[in-house]
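Render this sequence as a predicted structure.
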Amino acid sequence: MHFKARAHDKLNDEVLQGNLVKIKGKFVAKRRESILELDDFEGTRDAGKAIRQRALDNLDVWLEIFEASATARGATVLWAQTPADVNALVLDIAARHGVGKIIKSKSMVSEESALDHAIEAAGLTVVETDLGEYILQINDYEPPSHIIGPALHKSKEEVADLFHKAHGTPRKTGIEELCLEARGVLRGHYLTADMGISGGNFLVAETGSVVLVTNEGNATLATTLPKVHVAISGIEKIVPTLEDVATLMRLLGRSSTGQSISANVVSVRRLASRSACDCSLVRSGLSRLAAAADAVREELKLVLSPAETGDHDRLLAAVRERLAHAAFEAAWAEGRALGLDRAVAYALSG
């Protein structure tokens, strides 16, 4: 069935259209209300745009700083040019650690690379732990309909029927009952998984940390309980400092789910003393970086003095010095005011 025929079919699907109307009302209305909490939403958005542009303008340098910072804390940073490379790297890590079961927090890069199918083709078990992604997985890997709410096109009744069929349990009717059933099923997988895979909302160059933002807490369990953690992210997720994260967090929840802040904000930093664990970060999009590398380095020469551009190692050192550590104290103060104690305090504690 071609796109126009499918679109016509779905536009006339009363259940689907009813589900989408409900979701649209919640997202749009909640966002409108939440942005009023900021004294200057447009100014904050401009600041967020400037942070992103700063990172992109100096992308190769920030990526190398991130790699150096993460490596110094015991993580391994790997680079992938293609979706196939992403899958191959993950499977290689799994093989080296004798992994049999993998649990996953939401990762859009892994969705694009069809990682779950590659894992299963290798004879391993994979379980999605984001509730929306889990619903789609047990429905024969139905494609997600939205980056934030993968299963927002599903009604409560449809999920109830699906759980009854997949779990072999009596059909539930309440949302809380359905959530408790999913929690019970997933909890066993958290405790028996050998590897946890996550995405990365922000990758902080200065600290080498991966910031994860969820409303379910599944990312925390998926990154701490298994012996191996792999974070998969595109290179565009890089931000220079924790202060930048604090600013962007004021926008993220409001412009996605209409929340002042998401329920769980965790900064993952691999500590070298945790010798029983392995943390790897697979970064995709390297081919795009290579194409822009020369232009980026020319940009850097405009902001650094000639003496600081003599060689690449000195260049990286100069950028590090320009990232004043006093900025982290400001991030801490702002984070506490916003209720970001867990996000900022965890990252600073290392």
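Summary. The longest helix spans residues 14-35. The CA atoms of residues 53 and 59 lie 9 Å apart.
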